[in-house]
Amino acid sequence: MNAPRPAAVIVLAAGEGTRMKSSTPKVLHRIGGTTLLGHAVRAARATQAEHVSVVVRHERERVVEFCTAFDPGLVIADQDDVKGTGRAVECGLDALPPGLSGTVLVSYGDVPLLTGDTLVALTEAHTASGSAVSVITAHLDDPTGYGRVVRDPDGHVARIVEQKDATDEERALTEINSGIYAFDADLLREALARVGTDNAQGEKYLTDVVQIARAAGRAVTAHVVEDRWQTEGVNDRVQLATLGAELNRRVCERHMRAGVTIVDPATTWIDVDVSIGRDATVLPGTQLLGATSIGDEAVIGPEVTLTDTEVGDRAEVQRAVANLAVVGPGATVGPYSYLRPGTRLGASGKIGGFVETKNAEIGDGAKVPHLTYAGDVTIGEGANIGAGTIFANYDGVAKHHSTIGAHSFVGSQSVVVSPVTVADGAYVAAGSTLTQDVEPGQIAVARGRQRNIDGWVARARAGTSTAEAAERAAAAPTRSDETPAKDTDR
Ligand code: UD1
Ligand code: CA
Q1: Fewest CB atoms less than 10 Å from the CB: which of 127, 199, 408, 465?
Q2: Does 477 reside within a domain?
Q3: Which residue has a Cα nearest atom 11 of ligand 1?
Q4: Residues 123, 249: one domain?
């Protein structure tokens, strides 16, 4: 069956959020890889509503900037000087097509764990019951601060009273108003026009619509949710952390139920958009952020932070940081590797310990195993980059690119002064400072040739333990007289 689509969702985000004590607007604080408002918009979009409007006022420009980038289809509604949730919804309606009818949902920009599924269920129940107002409520052990749901003796919702306006008897009620509702659009518009500001806070309360609907003989239904996290808002940074941890717990659980081993969910942080393949293993202390994707049977961690990074099937990444990188299937990364944007490691390739890469295309089976900086470089398949090699890509003014051909071998402690091209099937001798291209089949030796100077220790270091050791060694009968220096210049 097709779920009934709401005509609109109005997301309230005009409030100040002073308790955050932040120069960032509350709804732009982040958990799980997106802002609080982002989570609210995603839930709203999941209803397939025709329109989603966001009501803004406090820090308007920054909130609008976020909205436009996050979802260009959002309708921005400006709230004026009149305060209160009722006025906010009125302004939200004003920004939508006039005469809009059907179901209008209202949600908050600071309630990040509310799911699209819950909004869909609310819409379905609202439509099925034919109510003018359906409100999500919850039973809380400590309802302090919330509006309370006051029911008739027959159990129907009569009205909602704010904490500040409530009698002692009403404050003792534990059923709270979540602030998430479904309304009949026409009833909502007419009722809001009649809501005043005669209350403890001098605000136009959205909750007053309930009483007005009842007085007009219309039905109001409470939709009780058991999962209290879904109705919880963020008011300060303690709640931000608490809800962030709960969201993460839920994300980890979803992946585990889908076949991912997460050894320690408490120290594993996974953003909501991350995808992880079956039988992948995530080890402790790992953060998978942004649009990161992990292939089947990959092993990630311990202590790995990946942002917008793609890891192929069966790859292994440990103790590494990667940002906008691609790690091919079966490849290995780490420990202690730093993959910066534009790193693409081919299938079964290796980026090893204390290696930093940037804009580096590393072919299938190629290895950059130890202590290397590889920036602005293309390394062909099967090539091997020796320990301590530096690609000197920056001349102080511009960045340059180098290429190492397939199955070529760069000896340890070389400096490749870009731009340089080493052809396929070539060698670079260890310790070279390479400034010229190398042709196929050649070895480039770009360093001083070794000279062994006889008798130097005896002359220049006479009387030292080194000189004594040399003397003893020279006198030893087993010692060969000839010890030719290794030389690759042949
Ligand atoms: C509101 C409800 C209360 C409910 C609680 C749930 C009213 C009168 N009260 O109380 O019954 O239990 O939410 O959290 O509706 N906002 C605007 N413009 C405004 C005022 C608020 O956009 O002028 C937005 C805020 O940014 C926030 C949401 O509306 O996202 C709720 O505002 P808040 O001030 O937190 O409402 P409460 O007084 O807590
Ligand atoms: Ca609140």
Answers
A1: 465
A2: no
A3: 147
A4: no
